[in-house]
Amino acid sequence: MVNLRIGYSPKPTLSIYTFDKETRRRTIICRFKGWKADLILSSLADLLSEVRHYADGRRVLECQGEEQSLKIKLIISTLRGMRSKERCIKVINAIKSMNEPELHWWYRLYLKYDRKLLRALRILYAKE
């Protein structure tokens, strides 16, 4: 079974990866540093549960459920190209507030259109 996990270090650095329990391998999806790492971790805290906490401050968090995994995937994909902190917060709040059918609809479009859909999400939810 493949799980979505988030590794956080106090630098701040955030690594989002999948972890296969059978082969004990991880595949990194993306990394964030600085204010984006702090913003993502603080806003997604309610979707994650802590798996491991190290003495030096590093933490490993795991996502519980399919709906939360889809929300996290959409959020990190959308935030990857954004630079404005206020617009990032708007997008995170909009995606977190989506109900399940709307979330699946957006994710299905993301799989089909990729970057075009991410731009549409940014324009729709992060209006100035």
Give a short overview.
The protein is 47% helix and 28% strand.
Q: What key phrases describe this protein's structure?
A:
single chain, 128 residues, 5-stranded antiparallel β-sheet, globular, 28% strand, 47% helix, alpha+beta
What does this structure look like?
- The protein has 5 helices and 5 strands.
- It is α+β, with helices and mostly antiparallel strands and 128 residues long.
- It has one domain.
- Strands 3-2-1-5-4 form a 5-stranded antiparallel β-sheet.
- The longest helix is centred in the middle third of the chain and has 14 residues, at 66-79.
- The chain starts with a strand and ends with a helix.
What is the strand content?
25-35%
What is the overall shape? globular
> Portion of residues in helices?
40-55%
Structural class: alpha+beta
How confident is the prediction overall: mean pLDDT?
Answer: 87
The Cα radius of gyration reads: 14 Å
Write the element-wise H/E pattern from the N-terminal end onward. EEEHEEHHHH
Task: Give me the side-by-side strand order of the main sheet.
Answer: 3-2-1-5-4
Distance between the termini: 41 Å
Fold topology:
Elements: E1 2-9, E2 13-20, E3 25-33, H1 35-43, E4 48-53, E5 59-63, H2 66-79, H3 85-96, H4 100-113, H5 115-125
Antiparallel strand pairs: 1-2, 1-5, 2-3, 4-5
